[in-house]
Task: structure prediction
Amino acid sequence: MTNADPHELQKFSDLAHRWWDPNAEFKPLHELNPVRLDWIDGHAHLTGKRVLDIGCGGGILSESMAGLGASVKGIDLSREALGVADLHSLESGITVEYEEIAAEALAARDPASFDVVTCMEMLEHVPDPAQIVAACKTLVKPGGWVFFSTLNRNLKSYLFAVIGAEYIARMLPRGTHDYARFIRPSELAGFVRAAELTTVEIKGIVYHPLGKHFALSSDTSVNYMLACRREA
Result:
């Protein structure tokens, strides 16, 4: 069985045509992208690297990593989102290879094939996030980097990421997130250890409403990112 929730896939497929509109439902991803891109590149030095972007959606992060000189493959299970990603790649002239395939299936087919694997804002949308983490470990080469980002599970994250972002500020469509699927840093660290990856850094991401921008922080109580390595 595929490690995917049909309701979650349909939710993002229905919005796929608006993925690259910086003022539509995916505006937070556009605003967040420079922060996560700089952080990933600061660790992995993307130029010349072979990179896999799991749960790439419409390709915002995939294209930006390719723009830094990486050879990027993006995978997703939303055919509509991948169609948008392909079209935008043609329009922008930035080459990205896209494929509709599950991470676990690609891991079985092409193990140890990538210098860098990213899985951003995706773990909280699947039934078994530990299985995705294990697939990431299989996909990355020894010595390579794996990056995750997700949402912490606590009262503050519920108030900020669900009530605040979806119902008050309306930064995201209602129903974007299922609070029960949020993942505490300790839980993600456990998945990482079980997959025999080594955590290098954990960073929080905070939103500054007055300046309307995201920034790295030591505060991991809502959004956070984890940088890992597969030992050689």
